[in-house]
Amino acid sequence: MSSLGVPVHTVNCPTCGKLVDWVAQNRYRPFCSERCKLVDFGAWAAEEYRIPERVAGRHAVLGV
Questions:
Q1: pLDDT at residue 60 greater than cutoff 90
Q2: Quick check: pTM over 0.70?
């Protein structure tokens, strides 16, 4: 609960799994720290993560 009596949503840090309060005061959210944020950024920069390419349907390729 916050100081205003509002429930605080918690999430797991994507890097280390630590529970993190999802509040505006956490400038690293959804990460628990700047370190975890930079580890994740480094993984993207090293192309360890990839967004799958969308395969176009037959009609899109043919322009129909």
A1: no
A2: no
